[in-house]
Amino acid sequence: MKATPVRVILKSPREIELMRAAGRLVHEVLEELAGMIRPGIATAQLEARAAERIRRAGATALFYGVRHPQARFPFPASICCSVNEAVVHGIPDGRPLQEGDIVSIDCGVRLRGYCGDAARSFGVGRISPQAEALLRVTREALERAISEVRPGVRWSQIARKVQELVESHRFSVVRDFVGHGIGREMHEEPKLPNYWSRDQREADFELVPGMTLAIEPMVTAGRAEVEFADASGWTVVTKDRSLAAHFEHVVAVTEDGADVLTDGR
Question: Looking at the domain 13-260, which fold is it?
């Protein structure tokens, strides 16, 4: 299957620059929140700062009000804050972060009609050697994926390299949640798994210039299986309650490789 998937929307240089502006705002929000993370702060305080920063920039929060079939209510926050065993979609609340926690913050905005989306995981105070290794390996997995992006490469080649890196450190790649195309909408085609298996061959695709992709490895310190934390249908946790980390950037595929749109440039 050599052709670009039918539903992939290629972006013009102008559209990519509009996405970079949205990505710059996401970067600025994450930088501001990074400076706030310490023992004793509540994720609700991070949410309040992010919501105000997004509003002042004239943007809207991508996640606020999102619905999905398993959830009992629309997502009630501007950012996702996923603590320790939470992988994604954690709802900010009033519980203070503790020394040794790790917290993953996912931020998405729409600015002038185009989306930016990025995530980082942080240690709270002093963290365990295992948690430090998990953060490092997950960040390296994202960097490895980005370094492999160029026209003509198939996504399966990148996914295999991400999986090999993660599993070489005895960690696991989450299967149930994957990266995605992005542009005017938060979720566009194609889907970007961070692992590869034979049953995914029909979903493989070749990278071409103009693609804009949200690459986001999610890695656990234990097994790959996940479940909902409660009946709300939002926060996703590791089934074995091992630690999880999440890093994400949006990149544009260019003739020369990957152009990262959420690194603040």
Answer: Creatine Amidinohydrolase (3.90.230)
Q: Are 190 and 155 in contact (CB under 8 A)?
A: yes
Which H or E element spans position 5? none
Q: Which of 78, 68, 70, 85 is nearest to 231 (CA)?
A: 70
Distance between CA atoms of 12 and 5, rounded to whole angstroms?
17
Three-class SS state of 28: helix
**Taking a C-beta distance cutoff of 8 angstroms, is the pair 46, 81 a contact?**
yes
Query: Residue 7 has what pLDDT?
Result: 79
pLDDT at 200: 81
Q: Where are the beta strands (DSSP E) in the chain?
A: 60-61, 79-83, 86-88, 102-111, 114-123, 172-173, 179-181, 188-192, 212-215, 218-220, 226-228, 236-238, 244-246, 249-254, 257-260
pTM (whole model) above 0.85: yes
At CA 121, angle to CA 113 and CA 265, rounded to 5? Answer: 45
The two structure tokens encoding residue 119: 């995530």
